[in-house]
Design a protein that fits this description.
Elements lengths: L1 E7 L4 H10 L6 E7 L6 E5 L2 E5 L2 E10 L4 H12 L8 E6 L17
Antiparallel strand pairs: 1-5, 1-6, 2-5, 3-4
Helix pairs in contact: 1-2
Length: 112
């Protein structure tokens, strides 16, 4: 199993959610986050003064999927989250050693 973590633009969340549902991803965790990448934020002007907004609002989506669904999951996210502009986000993939469903005690892929 793998944990796929995607940092995307907030307005793309609904499209990504629908795209993941279409390939059979059943659950996800979504967190509102702030950050910046290579561009270091963006310059804005407020009341005539220029300043840099270091932390740009983003959404982090976390899903745990079986190894056989990892490529489809990544493709589903990229295909709808990509705008071609700076700040589209990143995807990280981590190995998952174990999953336990607290309510039933199920483990492994059955718990996902």
């Amino acid at each position: 199993m793998k944990k796929v973590e995607a940092i995307i633009k907030p307005f793309k969340l609904d499209e990504v959610k629908e795209s993941l549902a279409e390939i059979g991803v059943q659950g996800m965790t979504v967190t509102e986050v702030k950050g910046f990448g290579r561009t270091g934020g963006k310059r804005e002007v407020y009341r005539g003064s220029a300043y840099v907004v270091d932390f740009v609002p983003k959404v982090k989506i976390e899903v745990v999927v079986p190894d056989g669904l990892v490529r489809q999951t990544i493709d589903a996210i990229v295909n709808v989250a990509k705008t071609g502009r700076i700040g589209d986000g990143k995807i990280f993939v981590y190995p998952v050693e174990e999953v336990i469903r607290i309510r039933t005690g199920e483990t492994g892929e059955a718990a996902v």
